[in-house]
Amino acid sequence: MPTWWTGLADAPPDEAQALHALGLGFMAARTLHVALELRLFTHLAVGAQTLGQVAPALGLAERAAGRLLYACAALGLVQATGWDVS
Amino acid sequence: MFRNTPLTQKYLVEGQATFIGSYLHMFDALSYHRWEQMGAALRHNGPVDDLSHPYRYLADDAEEPQRFPRRSTLARAASGMPWHAGSISRPLRVSSTWEGALVRTQWQSSTAIHTCVLSSSISPGGSPGRACHAFRRGSRTACISLAVIMNTMCCRQARMWCCGQAICMLAARKAAGAC
């Protein structure tokens, strides 16, 4: 996993994934900022919760909350159990 | 079921001493719009401020140093109005050094030396970069935000404004409850 943008100087020449990660970095950043804005992590601080519990706490529809939660899970910000990533 | 990862639990949960979420979010709130304008700013070779943007005031009226009285500085800052640093401590002596992506700015007032690390890269659109720094002046802890003229990506003396965003207020509250 490439680290931050300063890490690219040492990236192997065939490491296109590093450029990909850099180019799409705004998606990860926006996901983090929106999760902070909605106080997702503070809501989850009490312990594991279901999508049905998180969504109303954030004031979101379940579908929307699910998208945010799975995006955060993909980024490693949230752990999702019972979620098949294969 | 969803739960926080250990990293998230430590740094992104409000109310904890290690919480940095508001600091991270400040960059989004203050600079995302500027970064969005980066291409246009480079082609234009200058600021391309969107006058309808809520943070436009940070680039406005650089030549009006004494617009606001010294009192209620923080209240004005919190409401998003510009504030000239000279109103609280003059003369200021500012020196800056580049350290990678950061500018370390040190300024000296009659009472103390204050150091602040600014992210120098947060405003490529030509508007001021900002950072928040809680400082102690006498018995009172206040919080200011520096604005750095980013047209030349360097600090200029006496060109500082207060922005007083949430992180500033939070820092000040944590420091002394003075805000």
Strand order of the largest sheet of chain B: 2-3-4
User: Would you count the extended β strands of chain B for me?
Assistant: 6
Low-confidence stretches of chain B: 59-179
Structural class of chain A: mainly alpha
Query: Helix proportion of residues of chain A, in percent?
Result: 55-70%
Shape of chain B: globular
Q: Number of helical runs of chain B?
A: 5
Return the average pLDDT of chain A rounded to an integer: 86
Main features:
heterodimer, A: 86 residues, mainly alpha, 5 helices, 56% helix, B: 179 residues, alpha+beta, 3-stranded antiparallel beta sheet, two-stranded antiparallel ribbon, 6 strands, 23% strand, disordered C terminus
Textual characterization of the structure:
The complex is a heterodimer of chains A (86) and B (179). Chain A is mainly alpha-helical. In chain A, 56% of the residues lie in helices and 3% in strands. Chain A has a domain at 25-79. In chain A, helix 2 (25-37) crosses helix 5 and helix 4 (51-58) packs across helix 5. Chain A starts with 15 loop residues before the first helix and ends in a 6-residue tail after the last strand. The model of chain A has no long low-confidence stretch (mean pLDDT 86). Chain B is built from five helices and six strands, in the order βααααβββββα. Chain B has helices at residues 6-11, 21-36, 38-44, 73-78, 166-176, and strands spanning 2-4, 93-99, 102-108, 113-119, 129-137, 140-148. In chain B, the strands form two sheets. Chain B has a three-stranded antiparallel beta sheet, with no helix packed on it. Chain B has a two-stranded antiparallel ribbon with strand order 5-6. In chain B, strand 2 (93-99) and strand 3 (102-108) form a beta hairpin. Mean pLDDT of chain B is 50; it is low at 59-179. The chains are: A mainly alpha (86), B alpha+beta (179).
